[in-house]
């Protein structure tokens, strides 16, 4: 990966339209550098690396798992995984074995855990490629059978439900699951590597349930170790717990949204947490026109201009993952924050350039409209789009669609 113009990580973030970009497709192959990228999610891999280093420093001596499921929270699984490992992440984590196999096929051989399975999951392939497997109960038997077929031990992490009520083994069934795993270990079919659990309310700092979950987790670990488990990794913390509860760090933490520079804590910004948002969603403005007061805008005509003004057309819509209900969300155009006017459509939405009115609206044609990015650069925060869409930052970035090219910055600099 060559052709990166800006190798200094401390350099100001380049404006999306300014710096020469390295274009890497989602398989990680360098692409010809197009002169103009009309619409893109720009992903700053230097920000990913910076976030990994900041999170590792925060949790040391615990190790860091970079959670790259859901196409790296919409940022692109392979480039993010490479950047995270490059910056010192110790593990990769995904939900599905299919995601894990994609990482292995790309040549990534780091410790890798997948935790959400169905009876159709390809455990044979997981065993063949050294993918660690989360086990909540029923999976143990088919995983052990796959290991026997493949002639090598499956690496498993038993999951205890400490209160989330989603996946995980109940406290009642836990001793039996531990015993079954250790029996398989004695027979060479399984290596019981870890015990883990997932937190329900770590983003709400005043809720008592996290204490209950930590206590239940310690008890489950004690049962496993008491039964003879030799655990390499006890892990509980997600991003909110990484950032607010050091007592949840244990041997390993699983960093998802914070890896991408986004805050999991309501009302706390990325910068306050020492994190840098990695994704900027932007598009070149497709049309600008002058309209009189009272002009209706977009389907339903729910918005009317209050005064003569210029309307800018942004070529991103709900088919690109821009939430349809986010009418009134902020957009940075020509150095000023404006608002979405009227309904967001499938392919496009309109911005009313009313306050402040640009001196030369026509000059804005082809310039960038920035929906969100790093607020330190003047871009709206992804959290503002989340608020406008009545959701969380996680959902905004993970739903940016396949029609939006990902454009990678700083892919090549090693540190
Ligand atoms: C997605 C996921 C994470 C990451 O959560 P964040 O809040 O994004 O850090 C961690 N653990 C499990 C089991 C997950 O499913």
UniProtKB/TrEMBL annotation:
Positions of the UniProt region annotated as Disordered: 1-36
GO molecular function: alanine racemase activity; pyridoxal phosphate binding
Record key words, sorted: Isomerase, Pyridoxal phosphate
GO biological process: one example: D-alanine biosynthetic process
Gene3D superfamilies linked to this entry: Alanine racemase (3.20.20.10), Lyase, Ornithine Decarboxylase, Chain A, domain 1 (2.40.37.10)
Keyword Isomerase found: yes
SUPFAM superfamilies: Alanine racemase C-terminal domain-like (SSF50621), PLP-binding barrel (SSF51419)
Coiled-coil region list: none
Keyword RNA-binding assigned: no
Pathway(s) this gene product operates in, as recorded in its UniProt entry: Amino-acid biosynthesis; D-alanine biosynthesis; D-alanine from L-alanine: step 1/1
Cofactor(s) essential for the protein: pyridoxal 5'-phosphate
First-tier enzyme category under EC: isomerase
InterPro entries assigned: Ala_racemase (IPR000821), Ala_racemase/Decarboxylase_C (IPR009006), Ala_racemase_C (IPR011079), Ala_racemase_N (IPR001608), Ala_racemase_pyridoxalP-BS (IPR020622), PLP-binding_barrel (IPR029066)
Binding site for substrate: 166, 346
Annotated active site: 69, 299
PROSITE patterns in UniProt: ALANINE_RACEMASE
Modified residue annotations for N6-(pyridoxal phosphate)lysine: 69
EC number(s) reported in the record: 5.1.1.1
Record field: compositional bias (Basic and acidic residues): 1-10
GO cellular component: cytosol
Catalytic activity annotation: L-alanine = D-alanine
Protein family (similarity comment): Belongs to the alanine racemase family.
PANTHER family assigned: ALANINE RACEMASE (PTHR30511), ALANINE RACEMASE, CATABOLIC-RELATED (PTHR30511:SF0)
Stored HAMAP family: Ala_racemase (MF_01201)
Function: Catalyzes the interconversion of L-alanine and D-alanine. May also act on other amino acids.
Protein name (database record): Alanine racemase
Annotated organism of origin: Tersicoccus phoenicis
